[in-house]
């Protein structure tokens, strides 16, 4: 009896140690991913979402739907999957009786690209596009019956692109010709999202008249906003399709699309290059961006961080093996390093920035790895420790059997 | 007055202002009247350029799709119609031919048989819609017309709305221009049966205009808007089935099928009446726009805007609206235009920001158009078949094309331009989401591209009528405050209220007489006198008789001698005129405006024919002369002949013309007729009464 007790006694510290070890490991792993929830500085960018909203109805607002659908195609092409795109279209131009090309929507008079072709998943359509539903999508306060496909299921590691187009004015955006979203409504929704950890970074892109005024109330960190026009300015349509009989695209969106047309998923053009590509004389308005809430420098942020689904990936040779992670930090793949072939202007010329960008993730992730490493050093290879323990158990077992016998 | 009564109590500023105005009533009246007339003359300068107010319309944003092929088809129809003309019996054939062409396009075809309604005086039908019930009373069964209706359904539309194209066609007296108007509409219609972008159905009405363009369209509209069910329908068809039918419409219709098959589409969004006239214009194809409907109602300005915009900027047509041509050569207008131009130049020199003044030629043109616009609105008679649509709140306008030459070779070119214009207008209206509502309904045109909105043209009217209550109040107060000092003190005998009541009674009785006068033509129509002059004579005699009878029965005395009496009567008259004009301005503004121009100076100036010893002889005589002139000018027949003479010259004037004119007013249910007999004439009689006052 006493012996067994002893044996147990001898075993228990080891078991506790092993337990402790595993606990520590899991804790560390958990902490590295979710302890960040408290501050965006340490969160990892894990996924991308896009909310694309066309707020105006009626045939003569054809271009707003075309704008939104064009953006939809772009973000899809750049890698955001359909289930992570919330597409809200306030009217159905494709099936409008006035449409000369039934069930087709074009954003250019050359009619080369039918935006309303296959695989367009409209999540909110027609009269579903209301201020209420829009705010519900942002804040995630849905009624229970709303399916998952209509929800913005983002988390604290999400980068969200919020694109809105329609008719706006000073500090408001008109929805459906009957109600309006005011700048403080938007700011309030964004704040709620922030507090609920629904995004890491949020890019709000608005193509309306006086779009800049819509951002005036925003004050949540991590938000980057860009509007097509300043206060007192109008946003204009780009061109008229005299075949369909309506304007088919807005200037701001047209030049945004022109920028993305030359990019693919692996290009590392920065947001700054996008923003500086807007030419006020072509736009006939001044694009405005609000960066004071955004923590990173625009030169360091690739557009695909919002418009695509490209994020830093961590390569591991074997899954679930924590031991190997030590090496993995050297191998973090930096898609940014890949050079842009086509456009000189878009290439990031400053090598210093390049370096800093490479190092930047090291600062945040590396720290966690270091702490994990330190904790593991206490045990100096836990596996051998366990093996030694087991080997030592053998003579003990032999001694105890010998004593009994 | 006020300081005397309440010397200590301080009155509110508005009251003091009112008292100040009333105490200076003469100055106020003179200033207001003059500025009213000046403001009226300034309207062409204050006119604004028209603009498309409704976003949805987007005129000209789409390229016309109408091709030479459509025009070629239309030309075939034109030639076929011209061939028919040579045949002896063609009236029924025309309907069949057009119907065949329409059904070949794959559109629905229908016929509408109607019995033309003779215009008649319905004293109780003012402001009411034509009633289908009253139709059967006076139809002639042997006289009927047949409208052909083609309907192109919108392939993806919901069928709730429609746009109407109307082509009046008189098969008995048709020529090339009429055939061209059919061809023009046909080419558009044939295109519209093929396009995919229609959201509203297209109804093409080929109106049989043998009995007048208006009556055929209004008959069709009446039947369209008021479906007849069951028994009454059979009764209606029975009434006239016995009548001999001069021709048979092949196998397309029988009488019963005809009514059952009344083709309908949705509610009408707009209507375009298409006509081609022979009167050719030099050098350019011209488009005349007619838009006045009954009682000065106008279609929404947006409709005129899109037609004007597309015609001028897309098809290069010369657009015209009606003008009073004689005004263009009027001396006084030329002088005025030059003065205003100079003023404009000076103003611009003072401050380049002020955009005042327009070139003299433009001013003269604008004034002539404005005068015509005012006149036709005041008349209250629709200027074309589009007027029938306005009765159902459908915006409609008549497009009258006048090609500069109708030579054979130019047909196609003209057809192409004209039908592309119509296509553009229809495509624009097709884009519309609701009824026309954005732009103005109350406006006067000074050119096809310039208008004076209600907010501006109200000003002259308000300035003109504003002195009326001021003067009335001033007269009423003066007589009791200052009257006893100047007069002999008789006023003390008759208390204020009694004098006032007498005057009010007088005014009411005269207005009552006015309403009797307005009903007299109904009786005169029942008796059948031949000449208009005779009718007019009987009308005036009966009116005079009625007046005498009323005076005898109700005991009006003409021999009151006190000053107070006539002053109070004038005060009451002024109030009556004010109320009457304001009421009329709501019904038909243009009538009220012209009426105010005639009545207000008269009512303000009117004074008994007696010599005031306090004033000089010259003043007395000039006042008398002025009274006479104003009074005679304001008498409705005289003002009619004066206006007519000023516009068309004084030769060949017949007294009977006035009767004809009045007859046309009541036949079209114009509110102007009511205004003349129930407001203008009584007020004139009251003024006459004051003038003939003994002392």
From TrEMBL, chain A:
Ranges that cross the membrane: 385-404
Residues at the active site: 167, 209 (nucleophile)
Key words of the record: GPI-anchor biosynthesis, Membrane, Signal, Transmembrane, Transmembrane helix
Entries under InterPro entries matching the protein: GPI_transamidase (IPR028361), Peptidase_C13 (IPR001096)
Pfam families registered for this protein in UniProt: Peptidase_C13
Pathway given in the UniProt record: Glycolipid biosynthesis; glycosylphosphatidylinositol-anchor biosynthesis
Extent of the signal sequence: 1-31
Molecular function via GO: GPI-anchor transamidase activity
GO biological process: attachment of GPI anchor to protein; GPI anchor biosynthetic process; proteolysis
Entries under Gene3D superfamilies matching the protein: 3.40.50.1460
GO cellular component terms attached to this protein's record: GPI-anchor transamidase complex
Family, per entry: Belongs to the peptidase C13 family.
PANTHER family: GPI-ANCHOR TRANSAMIDASE
Protein name per the record: GPI-anchor transamidase
Originating organism: Trapa natans
Lineage of source species: Eukaryota, Viridiplantae, Streptophyta, Embryophyta, Tracheophyta
Automatic annotation (TrEMBL), chain B:
InterPro entries the UniProt entry points to: Gaa1
Transmembrane segments: 20-43, 454-477, 503-524, 536-558, 578-604, 625-651, 671-692
Pfam families named among the record's database cross-references: Gaa1
GO biological process, one term: attachment of GPI anchor to protein
Keywords: Membrane, Transmembrane, Transmembrane helix
One GO CC term on file: GPI-anchor transamidase complex
Keyword Transmembrane attributed: yes
Protein name as catalogued: Glycosylphosphatidylinositol anchor attachment 1 protein
């Amino acid at each position: 009896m006493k012996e067994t007790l002893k044996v147990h006694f001898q075993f228990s510290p080891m078991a506790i140690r092993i337990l402790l070890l595993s606990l520590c490991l899991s804790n560390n792993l958990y902490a590295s991913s979710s302890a960040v929830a408290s501050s965006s500085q340490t969160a990892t960018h894990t996924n991308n979402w896009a909310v694309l909203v066309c707020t105006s109805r009626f045939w003569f607002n054809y271009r707003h739907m075309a704008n939104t659908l064009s953006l939809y195609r772009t973000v899809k092409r750049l890698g955001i999957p359909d289930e992570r795109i919330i597409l809200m279209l306030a009217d159905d131009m494709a099936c409008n009786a006035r449409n000369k090309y039934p069930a087709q929507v074009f954003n250019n008079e050359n009619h080369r690209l039918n935006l309303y072709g296959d695989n367009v998943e409209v999540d909110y359509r027609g009269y579903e596009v209301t201020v209420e539903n829009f705010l519900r999508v942002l804040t995630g306060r849905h009624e229970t019956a709303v399916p998952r496909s209509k929800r913005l299921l983002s988390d604290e590691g999400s980068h969200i692109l919020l694109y809105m187009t329609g008719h706006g004015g000073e500090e408001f955006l008109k929805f459906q010709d009957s109600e309006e979203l005011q700048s403080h409504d938007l700011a309030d929704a964004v704040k709620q999202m922030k507090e609920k950890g629904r995004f890491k970074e949020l890019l709000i892109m608005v193509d309306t008249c006086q779009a800049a005024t819509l951002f005036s109330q925003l004050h949540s960190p991590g938000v980057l906003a860009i509007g097509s026009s300043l206060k007192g300015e109008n946003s204009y349509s780009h061109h008229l399709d005299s075949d369909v009989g309506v304007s088919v695209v807005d200037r701001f969106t047209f030049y945004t699309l022109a920028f993305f047309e030359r990019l693919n998923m692996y290009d590392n053009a920065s947001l700054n290059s996008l923003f500086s590509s807007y030419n006020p004389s072509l736009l006939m308005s001044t694009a405005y961006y609000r960066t004071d809430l955004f923590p990173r420098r625009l030169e360091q942020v690739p557009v695909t961080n919002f418009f695509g689904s490209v994020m830093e990936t961590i390569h591991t040779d074997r899954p679930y093996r924590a031991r190997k992670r030590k090496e993995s930090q050297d191998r973090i793949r930096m898609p940014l390093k890949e050079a842009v072939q086509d456009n000189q202007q878009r290439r990031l010329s400053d090598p210093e920035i390049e370096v800093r960008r490479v190092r930047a993730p090291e600062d945040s992730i590396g720290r966690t790895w270091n702490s994990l490493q330190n904790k593991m050093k206490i045990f100096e290879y836990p596996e051998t420790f366990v093996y030694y323990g087991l080997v030592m158990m053998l003579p003990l077992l032999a001694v105890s059997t010998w004593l009994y016998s | 007055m006020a300081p005397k009564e309440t010397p200590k109590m301080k009155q509110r500023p508005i009251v003091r202002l009112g008292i100040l105005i009333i105490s200076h009533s003469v100055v106020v009246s003179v200033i207001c009247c003059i500025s009213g007339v000046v403001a009226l003359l300034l309207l062409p300068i204050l006119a604004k350029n028209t603009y498309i107010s409704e976003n949805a319309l987007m005129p000209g944003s789409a390229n016309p799709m109408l091709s030479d092929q459509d025009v070629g088809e239309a030309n075939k129809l034109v030639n076929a119609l011209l061939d028919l003309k040579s045949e002896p019996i063609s009236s029924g054939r025309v309907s069949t031919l057009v119907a065949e062409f329409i059904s070949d396009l794959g559109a629905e075809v229908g016929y509408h048989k109607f019995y033309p309604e003779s215009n008649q005086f319905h004293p109780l039908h003012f402001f009411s819609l034509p009633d289908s019930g009253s139709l059967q009373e006076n139809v002639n069964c042997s006289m009927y017309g047949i409208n052909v209706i083609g309907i192109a359904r919108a392939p993806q539309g919901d069928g709730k709305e429609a746009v109407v194209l109307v082509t009046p066609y008189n098969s008995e007296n048709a020529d090339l221009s009429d055939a061209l108007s059919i061809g023009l509409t046909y080419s558009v219609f044939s295109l519209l049966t093929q396009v995919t972008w229609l959201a509203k159905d297209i109804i093409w009405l080929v109106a049989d205009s043998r009995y007048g363009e208006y009556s055929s369209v209004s008959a069709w509209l009446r039947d369209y808007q008021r479906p007849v069910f069951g028994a009454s329908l059979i009764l209606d068809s029975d009434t006239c089935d016995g009548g001999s039918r001069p021709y048979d419409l092949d196998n397309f219709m029988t009488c019963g099928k005809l009514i059952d098959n009344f083709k309908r589409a949705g509610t009408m969004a707009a209507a375009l009446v298409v006509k081609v006239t022979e009167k050719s214009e030099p050098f350019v194809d011209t488009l005349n726009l007619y838009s006045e409907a009954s009682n000065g109602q106008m279609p929404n300005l947006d409709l005129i805007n899109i037609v004007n915009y597309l015609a001028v900027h897309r098809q290069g047509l010369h657009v015209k609206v009606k003008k009073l041509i004689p005004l263009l050569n009027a001396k006084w207008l030329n002088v005025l235009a030059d003065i205003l131009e100079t003023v404009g130049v000076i103003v611009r020199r003072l401050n380049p920001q002020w955009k005042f003044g327009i070139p003299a030629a433009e001013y003269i043109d604008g004034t002539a158009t404005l005068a015509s616009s005012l006149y036709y609105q005041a008349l209250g008679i629709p200027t074309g078949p589009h007027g029938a649509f306005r009765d159902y709140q459908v915006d409609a306008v008549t497009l009258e094309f006048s090609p500069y030459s109708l030579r054979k070779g130019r047909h196609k070119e003209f057809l192409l331009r004209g039908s592309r214009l119509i296509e553009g207008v229809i495509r624009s209206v097709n884009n519309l989401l609701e009824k026309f509502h954005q732009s103005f309904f109350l406006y006067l045109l000074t050119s096809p591209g310039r208008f004076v909105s209600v907010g501006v043209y109200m000003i002259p009217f308000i300035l003109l009528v504003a002195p009326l209550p001021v003067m009335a109040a001033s007269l009423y107060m003066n007589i009791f405050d200052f009257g006893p000092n100047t007069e002999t003190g008789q006023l003390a005998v008759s208390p204020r209220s009694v004098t006032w009541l007498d005057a009010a009674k007088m005014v009411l009785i005269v207005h009552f007489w006015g309403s009797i006068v307005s009903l007299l033509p109904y009786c005169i129509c029942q008796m059948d006198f031949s000449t208009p002059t005779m009718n007019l004579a009987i009308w005036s005699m009966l009116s005079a008789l009625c007046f005498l009878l009323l005076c005898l029965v109700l005991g009006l005395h003409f021999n009151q001698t006190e000053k107070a009496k006539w002053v109070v009567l004038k005060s009451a008259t002024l109030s009556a005129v004010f109320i009457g004009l304001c009421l009329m301005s709501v019904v038909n503004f243009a009538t009220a405006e012209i009426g105010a121009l005639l009545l207000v100076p008269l009512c303000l100036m009117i004074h008994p024919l007696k010599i005031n010893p306090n004033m000089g002889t010259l003043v007395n005589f000039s006042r008398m002369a002025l009274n006479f002139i104003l009074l005679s000018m304001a008498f409705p027949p005289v003002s009619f002949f004066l206006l007519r003479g000023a516009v068309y010259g004084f030769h060949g004037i017949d007294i009977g013309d006035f009767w004809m004119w009045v007859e046309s007013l009541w036949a079209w249910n114009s509110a102007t007729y009511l205004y003349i007999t129930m407001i203008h004439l009584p007020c004139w009689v009251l003024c006459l009464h004051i003038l003939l006052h003994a002392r």
